[in-house]
Each structure stands twice: as C-alpha cells, then as structure tokens.
Amino acid sequence: xxxxxxxxxxxxxxxxxxxxxxxxxxxxxxxxxxxxxxxxxxxxxxxxxxxxxxxxxxxxxxxxxxxxxxxxxxxxxxxxxxxxxxxxxxxxxxxxxxxxxxxxxxxxxxxxxxxxxxxxxxxxxxxxxxxxxxxxxxxxxxxxxxxxxxxxxxxxxxxxxxxxxxxxxxxxxxxxxxxxxxxxxxxxxxxxxxxxxxxxxxxxxxxxxxxxxxxxxxxxxxxxxxxxxx
Length: 230
Prior knowledge:
alpha/beta; DHBP synthase; ten-stranded mixed β-sheet; three-stranded antiparallel β-sheet; disordered N terminus
C-alpha cells in the first residue's frame, strides 16, 4: 500500500465498502449513494422484505416504541457507524423480540432476569456481559412491528437511532429520509412513533446493580423489585 503524502487521503478496500485513511490513521467510511426505498408497513410481506434486506447486509430503519431505529444484520454492524457518522467507541445496543431470547445472548444474573420479566417489553435497557463481545445493552421494545421484524431476523438485532449522529431523533419515516436518504437501503414506514422519555439503563454485569440513567422507569420502581429478589 502506498504511503500517504501531505494533503492526500489513502483509500483502501473493505468488505463492507470503501474507507479513507488520513494522516493520523483515522479511518472513515465512504458512504456510497444508494437508492433508499420507503415501504409501508401495511404492504403485504413488508416485514419479510425488510428482514430479507437485513439478511443481505443492507441497512433498514423501522419504528420502535420511542423513535425510529436503524439496524444492520449481525455481521454488518460497522455499516451503522458509517451511515450515522457515529463515533466508533459508542457501542450499539441490541433489541430483542422477546425476553426469552436474553438467555442465549448474555450471562443473565438473577436481578437481570427479574427486571426483564417485570419491565419487558418496555423502556428498560439492561447491560450485561455477552460472551466474546464484552458488555452489551439489551432491550425488548414495546412495539409489535419492531418485535415482528426482530423475530423474523433471528430474535435479536443491533439497533441505534435512525438519525445522523448529533442530530434530532426521527419520529416519522419522512424525518428518517430527511437525514439518511441515500445512506440506507430501506425505511419501513409504520407511522409516527411516541417519542417521550428515554429508557432507564441498568447495569447488571455484577451482583451490584447500578442505575446508569434514570428514565421512564424510576429508581424507586427498580429498587422495589430488586428488594424482592434479594
């Protein structure tokens, strides 16, 4: 590979696309223009079509119980960072179709199991240790369309908000298109999402449960449940 000269960028190939590497070795994805399709969730076979797109490694946006989310298949998570201009150090949470899928995804503590049973589907994010992947955040969204798509994709998907990093969250398919048109393959239009208060994030990686962010579920509700587990 040729050296980088001052004022030039080096381009190298990557299986998920092309990347540029600058003078300081910072690698940034080059986003290829793609034709972004808007697909109504009421169209027969829409969920299956979206799942097939994910299986092909394409990026798909869809509604959740808060805002529109953006997902890629498990082997194509890197594409999410490029499409959103998301900092590489920020991990991507995993949305599950059902609480029963948690056991196959992470090391589940008794406290995490009790919290999932009580608050899922809903606005509670649980951080756990996932074998070979480190710590990951998991949630089951309270949105039937999102859960159908996740179930059709194997029961779990890496999902982040469907917006450019640092920009406003998208609550409609049109708002997703305004920010990500040409960067993702498909927007599954399921109408306007509720928005509202963010999820509460709880660290259950050890026996000492920690609330990392208090959101829609209060600390008092968490403490009350955990008192019954101890």
